[in-house]
């Protein structure tokens, strides 16, 4: 029987339905919808009303998919925005009623990191000790097989805090870069790690842009390599573009356009702090880690 994972993130809501055989995830369906649940959270302390409505509508659609596939076990996890918002508990109550009585779990940044590591590491069996960097909308996790750190900065949070305009002014970009750099200053590096893996929508979107894909293609993105020099160029180019121009990038989900510059700045700050010039990009992530855990229950 298939199992399923739902991730209610700061910027996206995602679903994975899969069979797990001998520890291998055999994907049946995978869906991602940008709902911008945490947009404006830094200023209001609350989840976005529009984001709440879109998230609940998306979850109602996910419920239909779960019922159609007669999923045996489901785990719903909620992350940074739901942790931080004053109306997070009430929103999660609404999630339970929308998706048929399944109670979502509000997980810590450290557990979020562990799940992302489990999912991503399985996609790169050649790496003996990888460092996984998971950039979300509200937080960024750095995790190895024996350590995990979660920092409260991500594509949405940095955008809210430091990038109000498109095109972005030079001092705004400089301020955003300094903020991300300062927040990552205390994160331990990993001298014994033999490779870096970037997971979640910021990394995959940036890789698709770097590859200049005519449309988003998961098979091309997974296992691709993103270089620090490419991020420098993308930040320069994105900062000079209007929101409407960013939305026209062929390989980018247009709903990610408002926060992709912030995501690129977070990604560059993470790579600079770790002192790596290249990172492996993974389509396997927290969702894969959740379904692997469900299969063992």
- Strand coverage percent: 15-25%
Strand order of the largest sheet: 8-7-6-9-11-10
Head-to-tail CA distance between termini: 13 Å
Write down the CATH class of the largest domain.
Answer: Alpha Beta
Major sheet: size, sense and barrel closure?
Answer: 6 strands, mixed
What is the number of domains?
A: 2
Unreliably modeled segments: none
Tell me the CATH superfamily of the largest domain. Exopolyphosphatase. Domain 2
Q: Count up the helices.
A: 13
By oligomeric state, this entry counts as single chain
**Secondary-structure element sequence?**
EEEHHEHHEHEEEHHEHHEHHHEH
Q: How many β-strand stretches? A: 11
* Mean of residue pLDDT values: 93
Explain what you see:
- By secondary structure, the chain is an alpha/beta fold.
- It folds into 2 domains: 3-109, ATPase, nucleotide binding domain (Nucleotidyltransferase, domain 5), CATH 3.30.420.40; 119-282, Exopolyphosphatase. Domain 2 (Nucleotidyltransferase, domain 5).
- Helices cover 44% and strands 21% of the residues.
- The chain contains 13 helices and 11 strands.
- The strands form 2 sheets. The chain has a 6-stranded mixed beta sheet, with helices on both faces. The chain has a 5-stranded mixed beta sheet with strand order 3-2-1-4-5, with helices on both faces.
- A hairpin with a 4-residue loop joins strand 7 (140-143) and strand 8.
- Helix 8 (201-210) packs across helix 12 (260-274).
- The chain is globular.
- The two termini are 13 Å apart.
- The mean pLDDT is 93.
